[in-house]
Amino acid sequence: MSHFGLTATALADSIEVQRSSISHLLSGRNKPSLDFVLKILHKYPEVELYWLLNGKGSFPDKNETKTPSLFSHKTTPQKFEKVIAEKKETIVEEKKEIEKIVIFYKNGTFKSYTP
């Protein structure tokens, strides 16, 4: 919020959630839902998913080149695979392995990627 100069109210309005949702998250009363995380990533694509979920890494990204958001409507399968490959390298460094990635489409279908 401070990076974008937003108050809790302005953030809630910008991602179209109730203002109390932000208050409850900031106080630690609630954890963010998947819907909330996706709204953040959609509205602010420069926010890194890994940083948002784990608090590790850096935000804003110290590198000038921006990694495309995985949830951008403009992301092609090729860009998606490139981003996944980059993320996989980071995850492997941390001794974690990806088992499966599933993408859910608005029409109810999904596609599963297995390394």
Question: Can you give a write-up of this model?
Answer:
With 115 residues, the protein is mostly helical. The protein has two domains: 1-62, 434 Repressor (Amino-terminal Domain); 76-115, no CATH class. Helix content is 43%, strand content 7%. It is built from five helices and two strands; from the N terminus they run H-H-H-H-H-E-E. It has helices at 8-15, 19-27, 34-43, 49-54, 77-93, and strands at 101-104, 110-113. A two-stranded antiparallel ribbon has the order 1-2. Helix 1 (8-15) crosses helix 2.
Oligomer: single chain
Enumerate how many helices there are, as a single number.
5
**Which strands sit side by side, in order, in the main sheet?**
1-2
Shape: globular
The average pLDDT value, as a whole number, equals: 78
Q: How many strands, which pairing sense, and closed or not: the largest β-sheet? A: 2 strands, antiparallel
Number of domains: 2
CATH superfamily of the largest domain: lambda repressor-like DNA-binding domains
- At the first level of CATH, the class of the largest domain is Mainly Alpha
Put the structure in a nutshell.
The chain is mainly alpha-helical. The chain is 43% helix and 7% strand. The longest helix has 17 residues.
Ordered list of secondary-structure elements with their pairings:
Layout: H1 8-15, H2 19-27, H3 34-43, H4 49-54, H5 77-93, E1 101-104, E2 110-113
Antiparallel strand pairs: 1-2
Helix pairs in contact: 1-2
